[in-house]
Write a structure and sequence with these properties.
binds protoporphyrin IX containing FE; 307 residues; mainly alpha; globular; single chain
Length: 307
Amino acid sequence: MPADWLHPALRFAQYAALLGLFGATAFHALRLRPLVGDTGTMRLRPIAIAAVAAPVISLAAMLVGIAAMMGQPLHDLDLATIQSLVLATQPGWAFLVRSALLVLALAALLLIKPMAPRQIAAASCYALALSTLAWTGHAAATEGVLGLVHRLNDALHLWAAGLWIGAICWFTTLVFAAHRNPDRGQSERLLVAMEGFAPLGMTLVGIVAMTGILNAHFIFGLENGVAVLNTPYGLLLAGKMLLVASMLMCAARNAGIVRPNGGIRRVGAVRSDGTLTALRTSLAAELLLAILVLMLVALTGLASPME
Ligand code: HEM
């Protein structure tokens, strides 16, 4: 069997890469072009690195998952076993579709020159690749029509979470850059963009919460919530809820910094009142909490709500 930490670590890397890539490309296409422009190559470099790594991580996660399922060391896996499990199971097909979409997204990022169609094509591929995760794990265990509803609900959970994470990544990057190279005009535009994000941000939080609760109901039935809390699965889920609540506190703090006292932000107050310094800390904390959420999710998917 592979080392105990390897499977959850690769699951975490896969969630981080796919959610980050979908969120970052979609959020850039939807909201940020006026702010970042077509020239932010330096800022797009992490996306390019993650885009190359994503298919490799997905392949490694699939192989280690098969080894763990078979109770075999990774190097003992033979091609016939891998082939039969990939071609004969739903998670296997989900992996094949995911791999194709990740390669297509990478090709879009490398080959399409104009920024807008490039980001839209890549974001669409990443959205579909992300949704294939719902055909693996607990969401894939529900059968029939209810199973399809569970998977679609899970895909919506992943898309909303991805956009939220993409927004945090972009705003953190841009606030750190604005803090390093002060430019009052650019900083003002950044704060206006953050202010404009509030309604979308609240919608995303609402969708993540609703689809998350529905997910829980599909997996163990909310009426069994107290019993599930006595299992390691339940504790991991409760830990995730605490982290998500802390993320919401950071988001509320960001909104409070961008619009102090819920009022109109004073134009020109960007540098003098330490706005960027406060935002930097708050956004970095929100990003760290999101990473911890994904670590817990990587473990939750491997635990059973029944024991
Ligand atoms: C009130 C908020 C939330 C609730 C109630 C909730 C609930 C859930 C539940 C019950 C699952 C299924 C776990 C399993 O596989 O057994 C899940 C999956 C997941 N959640 Fe959440 N969640 C919430 C917020 C978030 C946030 C904020 C993020 C990201 C930062 C997130 C990311 C994920 C991911 C990546 C999965 C795995 C989906 C998959 O592999 O199919 N969730 N969530």
